[in-house]
Amino acid sequence: MMIRWKEMYKQKLTVPDEAIKIVQNGDKIAVPIANGQPPALVSAVAKRAKTGELKDSVYFEVLNIRCPQICAPDVAGKIHYECGFVGPLSRGIVNSGVAEFVPIRFSSGKRVLVDDRKFNVVMLTVSPMDKHGYFSSGTNADYSYAIGKAAYPHKILVEVNEKMPRTCGNNQFHITEVDAVVENTLPLTCLPVEPLSKEDEAIGRYIAEQIPDGSCLQLGIGGIPNAVAKFLEHKKDLSVHTEMLCDNYVELYKKGVITSRYKTHMPNKWISTFILGSQETYDFADQNPLVEIWGAEWVNNPQVAALNDNLMTVNATVEVDLTGQCASESMNFKQFSGVGGQADFVQAAAQSRGGKSFLATYSTYTDKEGNLQSKIVPVLNNFVTISRMDVQYVVTEYGIAYLKDKSLKNRVNELTAIAHPDFRDWLKSEAKRFKFTI
Fold it and tell me: Cα(124)–Cα(140) distance, rounded to whole angstroms?
Protein backbone atom coordinates (compact mmCIF):
# COMPACT_ATOMS: atom_id res chain seq x y z
CA MET A 1 0.00 0.00 0.00
CA MET A 2 2.87 2.36 0.76
CA ILE A 3 4.08 2.08 -2.85
CA ARG A 4 0.56 2.84 -4.09
CA TRP A 5 0.37 6.03 -1.99
CA LYS A 6 3.78 7.15 -3.22
CA GLU A 7 2.73 6.64 -6.82
CA MET A 8 -0.46 8.59 -6.26
CA TYR A 9 1.60 11.37 -4.67
CA LYS A 10 3.84 11.56 -7.75
CA GLN A 11 0.83 11.69 -10.05
CA LYS A 12 -0.66 14.63 -8.15
CA LEU A 13 2.63 16.48 -7.63
CA THR A 14 2.89 19.60 -9.76
CA VAL A 15 3.97 23.25 -9.65
CA PRO A 16 1.79 25.99 -8.14
CA ASP A 17 0.77 27.62 -11.45
CA GLU A 18 -0.46 24.26 -12.77
CA ALA A 19 -2.16 23.29 -9.50
CA ILE A 20 -4.17 26.51 -9.49
CA LYS A 21 -5.69 25.65 -12.87
CA ILE A 22 -7.97 23.33 -10.89
CA VAL A 23 -9.58 26.44 -9.42
CA GLN A 24 -12.40 27.68 -11.64
CA ASN A 25 -14.16 31.00 -12.05
CA GLY A 26 -16.77 31.39 -9.32
CA ASP A 27 -15.05 29.02 -6.87
CA LYS A 28 -14.98 29.95 -3.18
CA ILE A 29 -11.43 29.58 -1.88
CA ALA A 30 -10.42 29.44 1.79
CA VAL A 31 -7.02 29.21 3.44
CA PRO A 32 -6.27 28.54 7.14
CA ILE A 33 -4.98 30.89 9.82
CA ALA A 34 -1.39 32.22 9.78
CA ASN A 35 1.15 29.41 9.12
CA GLY A 36 -1.51 27.16 7.64
CA GLN A 37 -1.65 29.45 4.61
CA PRO A 38 0.32 28.03 1.64
CA PRO A 39 2.51 30.86 0.24
CA ALA A 40 3.30 29.27 -3.13
CA LEU A 41 -0.32 28.39 -3.89
CA VAL A 42 -1.62 31.76 -2.69
CA SER A 43 0.97 33.53 -4.86
CA ALA A 44 -0.27 31.55 -7.87
CA VAL A 45 -3.87 32.58 -7.08
CA ALA A 46 -2.71 36.19 -6.86
CA LYS A 47 -1.12 35.95 -10.31
CA ARG A 48 -4.32 34.62 -11.88
CA ALA A 49 -6.46 37.20 -10.11
CA LYS A 50 -4.20 40.07 -11.20
CA THR A 51 -4.41 39.09 -14.88
CA GLY A 52 -8.18 38.77 -14.67
CA GLU A 53 -8.15 35.01 -15.28
CA LEU A 54 -9.99 34.25 -12.07
CA LYS A 55 -13.41 35.86 -12.16
CA ASP A 56 -16.33 35.92 -9.71
CA SER A 57 -14.33 34.03 -7.09
CA VAL A 58 -14.19 34.54 -3.32
CA TYR A 59 -10.99 34.35 -1.26
CA PHE A 60 -11.35 33.99 2.53
CA GLU A 61 -8.53 34.20 5.05
CA VAL A 62 -7.83 34.87 8.72
CA LEU A 63 -4.66 36.55 10.03
CA ASN A 64 -2.51 36.72 6.92
CA ILE A 65 1.10 37.00 8.08
CA ARG A 66 2.94 35.27 5.23
CA CYS A 67 1.21 35.83 1.88
CA PRO A 68 1.70 39.50 0.89
CA GLN A 69 1.02 39.08 -2.85
CA ILE A 70 -2.69 38.44 -2.40
CA CYS A 71 -3.00 41.64 -0.31
CA ALA A 72 -1.71 43.95 -3.02
CA PRO A 73 -4.56 46.35 -3.87
CA ASP A 74 -4.30 45.61 -7.61
CA VAL A 75 -4.78 41.92 -6.81
CA ALA A 76 -7.26 41.96 -3.92
CA GLY A 77 -9.49 44.29 -5.90
CA LYS A 78 -9.88 41.71 -8.65
CA ILE A 79 -11.10 38.90 -6.43
CA HIS A 80 -13.81 39.06 -3.79
CA TYR A 81 -11.42 39.18 -0.83
CA GLU A 82 -12.90 38.46 2.61
CA CYS A 83 -11.08 38.56 5.92
CA GLY A 84 -12.27 37.09 9.21
CA PHE A 85 -9.45 38.49 11.35
CA VAL A 86 -7.36 41.42 10.17
CA GLY A 87 -3.59 41.06 10.30
CA PRO A 88 -0.72 43.39 9.39
CA LEU A 89 -0.89 42.48 5.70
CA SER A 90 -4.65 42.80 5.25
CA ARG A 91 -5.35 45.79 7.51
CA GLY A 92 -4.81 48.35 4.75
CA ILE A 93 -7.01 46.72 2.13
CA VAL A 94 -9.80 46.08 4.66
CA ASN A 95 -9.89 49.63 5.99
CA SER A 96 -9.68 51.13 2.49
CA GLY A 97 -12.66 49.06 1.33
CA VAL A 98 -10.73 46.90 -1.15
CA ALA A 99 -11.38 43.82 0.99
CA GLU A 100 -14.38 43.00 3.19
CA PHE A 101 -14.20 42.24 6.89
CA VAL A 102 -16.47 39.42 8.12
CA PRO A 103 -17.29 39.63 11.85
CA ILE A 104 -17.21 35.97 12.81
CA ARG A 105 -16.58 33.84 15.87
CA PHE A 106 -14.05 31.12 15.14
CA SER A 107 -16.47 28.54 16.52
CA SER A 108 -18.87 29.52 13.72
CA GLY A 109 -16.39 28.94 10.91
CA LYS A 110 -17.80 25.58 9.85
CA ARG A 111 -21.39 26.78 9.97
CA VAL A 112 -20.66 29.92 7.95
CA LEU A 113 -18.15 28.59 5.41
CA VAL A 114 -19.41 25.02 4.98
CA ASP A 115 -23.04 24.70 6.05
CA ASP A 116 -24.24 28.10 4.84
CA ARG A 117 -21.89 29.28 2.08
CA LYS A 118 -20.41 25.99 0.85
CA PHE A 119 -16.83 27.02 0.17
CA ASN A 120 -15.53 24.48 -2.31
CA VAL A 121 -11.74 25.01 -2.46
CA VAL A 122 -9.36 24.77 0.47
CA MET A 123 -5.61 25.36 0.11
CA LEU A 124 -3.30 24.62 3.01
CA THR A 125 0.23 23.86 4.14
CA VAL A 126 0.68 20.30 5.37
CA SER A 127 3.42 18.09 6.79
CA PRO A 128 5.03 15.45 4.51
CA MET A 129 2.93 12.38 3.76
CA ASP A 130 3.42 9.41 6.10
CA LYS A 131 3.70 5.76 5.07
CA HIS A 132 -0.07 5.36 5.31
CA GLY A 133 -0.72 8.16 2.82
CA TYR A 134 -1.79 10.81 5.36
CA PHE A 135 -0.81 14.45 5.61
CA SER A 136 -1.22 16.38 8.86
CA SER A 137 -2.39 19.97 8.62
CA GLY A 138 0.09 20.55 11.41
CA THR A 139 -0.28 23.89 13.13
CA ASN A 140 -3.83 24.35 11.85
CA ALA A 141 -7.22 22.70 11.84
CA ASP A 142 -9.28 25.87 12.51
CA TYR A 143 -12.17 26.21 9.98
CA SER A 144 -10.17 24.89 7.01
CA TYR A 145 -10.28 21.23 8.04
CA ALA A 146 -14.08 21.30 7.99
CA ILE A 147 -14.03 22.54 4.38
CA GLY A 148 -11.68 19.72 3.41
CA LYS A 149 -14.08 17.19 4.95
CA ALA A 150 -17.28 18.71 3.53
CA ALA A 151 -19.87 16.28 2.18
CA TYR A 152 -20.45 18.27 -1.03
CA PRO A 153 -17.98 18.34 -3.99
CA HIS A 154 -14.85 20.32 -3.20
CA LYS A 155 -11.15 20.54 -4.03
CA ILE A 156 -8.14 20.21 -1.72
CA LEU A 157 -4.78 21.68 -2.75
CA VAL A 158 -1.88 21.00 -0.38
CA GLU A 159 1.53 22.61 -0.12
CA VAL A 160 3.85 20.04 1.46
CA ASN A 161 6.46 21.59 3.71
CA GLU A 162 8.95 19.54 5.70
CA LYS A 163 9.06 22.35 8.27
CA MET A 164 5.37 21.91 9.12
CA PRO A 165 5.09 19.77 12.28
CA ARG A 166 3.04 16.60 12.20
CA THR A 167 0.48 16.96 14.96
CA CYS A 168 -1.96 14.58 16.61
CA GLY A 169 -5.68 15.20 16.83
CA ASN A 170 -8.32 15.49 14.13
CA ASN A 171 -6.47 17.18 11.27
CA GLN A 172 -5.37 14.60 8.69
CA PHE A 173 -6.03 14.34 4.96
CA HIS A 174 -5.35 11.23 2.88
CA ILE A 175 -3.67 11.41 -0.52
CA THR A 176 -6.83 10.00 -2.07
CA GLU A 177 -8.74 13.10 -0.90
CA VAL A 178 -6.23 15.57 -2.33
CA ASP A 179 -6.56 17.06 -5.83
CA ALA A 180 -3.11 18.61 -6.24
CA VAL A 181 0.22 18.59 -4.41
CA VAL A 182 2.99 21.17 -4.53
CA GLU A 183 6.14 21.38 -2.42
CA ASN A 184 7.78 24.26 -0.57
CA THR A 185 10.42 24.64 2.15
CA LEU A 186 9.67 28.16 3.36
CA PRO A 187 10.25 28.39 7.16
CA LEU A 188 7.19 28.88 9.33
CA THR A 189 6.61 32.42 10.59
CA CYS A 190 7.61 32.88 14.23
CA LEU A 191 6.20 35.52 16.55
CA PRO A 192 8.76 37.98 17.91
CA VAL A 193 9.30 38.02 21.65
CA GLU A 194 8.39 41.45 23.01
CA PRO A 195 9.62 42.69 26.40
CA LEU A 196 6.98 43.06 29.10
CA SER A 197 6.07 46.56 30.24
CA LYS A 198 5.50 47.48 33.88
CA GLU A 199 1.77 47.70 33.02
CA ASP A 200 1.86 44.17 31.59
CA GLU A 201 3.46 42.88 34.76
CA ALA A 202 1.00 44.65 37.05
CA ILE A 203 -1.94 43.22 35.12
CA GLY A 204 -0.30 39.80 35.01
CA ARG A 205 0.04 39.74 38.79
CA TYR A 206 -3.59 40.71 39.37
CA ILE A 207 -4.90 37.98 37.08
CA ALA A 208 -2.50 35.27 38.26
CA GLU A 209 -3.69 35.82 41.84
CA GLN A 210 -7.21 34.88 40.72
CA ILE A 211 -6.19 31.59 39.05
CA PRO A 212 -6.26 28.60 41.42
CA ASP A 213 -4.13 25.48 41.20
CA GLY A 214 -5.64 22.85 38.90
CA SER A 215 -7.13 25.41 36.48
CA CYS A 216 -7.45 24.96 32.71
CA LEU A 217 -5.99 27.82 30.66
CA GLN A 218 -6.92 29.76 27.56
CA LEU A 219 -4.43 32.56 26.96
CA GLY A 220 -4.74 35.03 24.11
CA ILE A 221 -1.94 36.75 22.23
CA GLY A 222 0.23 39.68 23.32
CA GLY A 223 2.09 41.17 26.25
CA ILE A 224 -0.70 40.84 28.81
CA PRO A 225 -1.26 37.07 28.41
CA ASN A 226 2.54 36.67 28.37
CA ALA A 227 2.74 38.50 31.70
CA VAL A 228 -0.01 36.33 33.17
CA ALA A 229 2.00 33.25 32.23
CA LYS A 230 5.08 34.70 33.93
CA PHE A 231 3.22 35.00 37.22
CA LEU A 232 1.74 31.52 37.00
CA GLU A 233 5.12 29.90 37.50
CA HIS A 234 4.36 29.00 41.13
CA LYS A 235 0.97 27.42 40.39
CA LYS A 236 0.39 23.67 40.30
CA ASP A 237 -1.27 21.21 37.93
CA LEU A 238 -2.59 23.58 35.28
CA SER A 239 -3.95 22.28 31.97
CA VAL A 240 -4.72 23.52 28.45
CA HIS A 241 -7.83 24.01 26.30
CA THR A 242 -7.16 26.97 24.07
CA GLU A 243 -7.80 28.46 20.67
CA MET A 244 -4.15 29.33 20.05
CA LEU A 245 -1.28 27.27 21.39
CA CYS A 246 1.66 29.62 21.99
CA ASP A 247 5.05 29.68 23.70
CA ASN A 248 3.63 30.37 27.17
CA TYR A 249 2.25 26.87 27.53
CA VAL A 250 5.55 25.23 26.58
CA GLU A 251 7.44 27.41 29.07
CA LEU A 252 5.01 26.55 31.87
CA TYR A 253 5.22 22.86 30.96
CA LYS A 254 9.02 22.91 31.13
CA LYS A 255 8.76 24.45 34.62
CA GLY A 256 6.40 21.70 35.79
CA VAL A 257 3.38 24.01 36.09
CA ILE A 258 1.24 22.36 33.41
CA THR A 259 0.61 18.70 34.16
CA SER A 260 -3.02 18.31 32.97
CA ARG A 261 -3.42 15.96 35.93
CA TYR A 262 -6.83 17.29 36.99
CA LYS A 263 -8.22 18.23 33.58
CA THR A 264 -11.87 17.21 33.49
CA HIS A 265 -12.32 17.08 29.69
CA MET A 266 -9.86 15.03 27.64
CA PRO A 267 -7.44 14.66 30.57
CA ASN A 268 -3.70 14.59 29.86
CA LYS A 269 -4.21 16.32 26.51
CA TRP A 270 -3.52 19.85 25.34
CA ILE A 271 -6.36 20.85 23.04
CA SER A 272 -5.99 23.68 20.51
CA THR A 273 -7.18 24.67 17.04
CA PHE A 274 -4.00 26.39 15.84
CA ILE A 275 -0.40 26.97 16.90
CA LEU A 276 1.50 30.23 16.57
CA GLY A 277 4.73 31.10 18.35
CA SER A 278 8.42 30.23 18.19
CA GLN A 279 10.22 27.47 16.35
CA GLU A 280 10.70 25.78 19.72
CA THR A 281 6.92 25.57 20.11
CA TYR A 282 6.51 24.13 16.59
CA ASP A 283 9.19 21.55 17.39
CA PHE A 284 7.50 20.73 20.70
CA ALA A 285 4.20 19.98 18.94
CA ASP A 286 5.80 17.78 16.28
CA GLN A 287 4.59 14.16 16.76
CA ASN A 288 3.85 14.95 20.40
CA PRO A 289 0.88 12.87 21.62
CA LEU A 290 0.32 15.41 24.40
CA VAL A 291 -0.77 18.06 21.86
CA GLU A 292 -3.93 17.62 19.76
CA ILE A 293 -5.13 20.01 17.06
CA TRP A 294 -8.87 19.94 16.31
CA GLY A 295 -11.33 22.06 14.33
CA ALA A 296 -12.47 25.39 15.77
CA GLU A 297 -16.13 24.34 15.61
CA TRP A 298 -15.26 21.88 18.39
CA VAL A 299 -12.37 23.49 20.30
CA ASN A 300 -14.02 26.92 20.47
CA ASN A 301 -17.54 25.64 21.08
CA PRO A 302 -18.37 27.11 24.51
CA GLN A 303 -20.30 23.99 25.52
CA VAL A 304 -17.24 21.82 24.78
CA ALA A 305 -14.65 24.14 26.33
CA ALA A 306 -16.84 24.50 29.44
CA LEU A 307 -16.54 20.78 30.11
CA ASN A 308 -13.21 21.80 31.63
CA ASP A 309 -13.77 22.82 35.25
CA ASN A 310 -12.05 26.04 36.38
CA LEU A 311 -11.56 27.29 32.83
CA MET A 312 -9.57 30.53 33.04
CA THR A 313 -9.66 32.67 29.90
CA VAL A 314 -7.38 35.69 29.46
CA ASN A 315 -7.76 38.07 26.54
CA ALA A 316 -6.89 41.65 25.71
CA THR A 317 -9.38 44.39 24.94
CA VAL A 318 -8.92 47.87 23.47
CA GLU A 319 -11.58 49.97 25.19
CA VAL A 320 -14.16 49.53 27.97
CA ASP A 321 -17.12 51.78 28.71
CA LEU A 322 -18.78 52.43 32.04
CA THR A 323 -21.60 50.00 31.31
CA GLY A 324 -19.08 47.17 30.83
CA GLN A 325 -19.12 46.89 27.05
CA CYS A 326 -15.73 45.91 25.61
CA ALA A 327 -14.29 46.77 22.21
CA SER A 328 -11.42 44.42 21.37
CA GLU A 329 -11.01 44.54 17.59
CA SER A 330 -11.24 48.11 16.29
CA MET A 331 -9.77 51.57 16.79
CA ASN A 332 -11.80 54.65 15.87
CA PHE A 333 -14.18 52.33 14.00
CA LYS A 334 -11.31 51.03 11.85
CA GLN A 335 -10.81 47.29 11.92
CA PHE A 336 -7.59 46.34 13.71
CA SER A 337 -8.00 42.61 14.36
CA GLY A 338 -11.17 40.52 14.73
CA VAL A 339 -13.55 38.78 17.08
CA GLY A 340 -11.57 35.55 16.88
CA GLY A 341 -12.20 33.23 19.77
CA GLN A 342 -12.58 35.88 22.46
CA ALA A 343 -16.38 35.81 22.51
CA ASP A 344 -16.35 31.99 22.46
CA PHE A 345 -14.12 31.70 25.49
CA VAL A 346 -15.82 34.44 27.50
CA GLN A 347 -18.99 32.37 27.21
CA ALA A 348 -17.14 29.12 27.88
CA ALA A 349 -15.68 30.43 31.14
CA ALA A 350 -19.17 31.54 32.23
CA GLN A 351 -20.47 28.01 31.65
CA SER A 352 -17.49 26.25 33.23
CA ARG A 353 -17.77 25.16 36.87
CA GLY A 354 -15.47 27.59 38.68
CA GLY A 355 -14.58 29.35 35.42
CA LYS A 356 -13.43 32.96 35.15
CA SER A 357 -12.91 35.25 32.15
CA PHE A 358 -10.54 38.22 32.24
CA LEU A 359 -10.50 41.06 29.72
CA ALA A 360 -7.44 43.22 30.20
CA THR A 361 -6.28 46.59 28.93
CA TYR A 362 -3.89 49.35 29.85
CA SER A 363 -5.68 52.23 31.54
CA THR A 364 -4.48 54.83 29.00
CA TYR A 365 -2.97 55.44 25.58
CA THR A 366 -1.28 58.43 23.95
CA ASP A 367 -3.08 59.92 20.95
CA LYS A 368 -1.53 61.33 17.76
CA GLU A 369 -1.23 64.77 19.34
CA GLY A 370 0.71 63.33 22.26
CA ASN A 371 -2.15 63.65 24.75
CA LEU A 372 -2.91 60.99 27.33
CA GLN A 373 -6.35 59.42 26.85
CA SER A 374 -8.34 56.97 28.96
CA LYS A 375 -9.15 53.50 27.69
CA ILE A 376 -12.04 53.38 30.12
CA VAL A 377 -14.61 55.72 28.62
CA PRO A 378 -18.20 56.80 29.33
CA VAL A 379 -19.50 55.15 26.13
CA LEU A 380 -17.62 53.16 23.49
CA ASN A 381 -15.96 54.82 20.51
CA ASN A 382 -15.61 51.45 18.75
CA PHE A 383 -17.52 48.35 17.73
CA VAL A 384 -18.76 46.20 20.62
CA THR A 385 -17.00 42.83 20.81
CA ILE A 386 -18.16 41.58 24.22
CA SER A 387 -21.55 42.68 25.53
CA ARG A 388 -21.98 44.10 29.00
CA MET A 389 -24.06 41.06 29.97
CA ASP A 390 -21.14 38.71 29.31
CA VAL A 391 -18.18 40.59 30.78
CA GLN A 392 -16.96 39.16 34.08
CA TYR A 393 -13.59 40.65 35.06
CA VAL A 394 -11.96 43.76 33.58
CA VAL A 395 -8.33 44.34 34.53
CA THR A 396 -5.94 47.29 34.21
CA GLU A 397 -2.61 48.03 35.88
CA TYR A 398 -4.68 49.66 38.68
CA GLY A 399 -6.65 46.56 39.65
CA ILE A 400 -9.55 44.24 38.85
CA ALA A 401 -13.20 45.17 38.38
CA TYR A 402 -15.82 42.44 38.80
CA LEU A 403 -18.86 43.36 36.69
CA LYS A 404 -20.92 40.22 36.20
CA ASP A 405 -24.60 40.85 37.00
CA LYS A 406 -23.86 44.17 38.73
CA SER A 407 -25.95 47.31 38.40
CA LEU A 408 -24.81 50.28 36.34
CA LYS A 409 -24.00 52.22 39.49
CA ASN A 410 -21.81 49.42 40.80
CA ARG A 411 -20.12 49.03 37.41
CA VAL A 412 -19.27 52.73 37.39
CA ASN A 413 -17.73 52.41 40.85
CA GLU A 414 -15.75 49.30 39.90
CA LEU A 415 -14.43 50.70 36.63
CA THR A 416 -13.54 54.18 37.84
CA ALA A 417 -11.50 52.53 40.61
CA ILE A 418 -9.25 50.84 38.03
CA ALA A 419 -9.07 53.81 35.65
CA HIS A 420 -6.02 56.06 35.55
CA PRO A 421 -6.27 58.50 38.49
CA ASP A 422 -6.24 61.52 36.15
CA PHE A 423 -9.54 60.42 34.59
CA ARG A 424 -11.54 59.18 37.56
CA ASP A 425 -13.33 62.43 38.36
CA TRP A 426 -14.17 62.95 34.68
CA LEU A 427 -15.61 59.43 34.44
CA LYS A 428 -17.75 59.96 37.54
CA SER A 429 -19.03 63.25 36.14
CA GLU A 430 -19.86 61.63 32.80
CA ALA A 431 -21.62 58.78 34.58
CA LYS A 432 -23.92 61.29 36.25
CA ARG A 433 -24.53 63.08 32.95
CA PHE A 434 -25.59 59.81 31.34
CA LYS A 435 -27.73 58.96 34.39
CA PHE A 436 -25.68 55.81 35.08
CA THR A 437 -25.61 56.91 38.70
CA ILE A 438 -28.00 58.94 40.81
Answer: 9
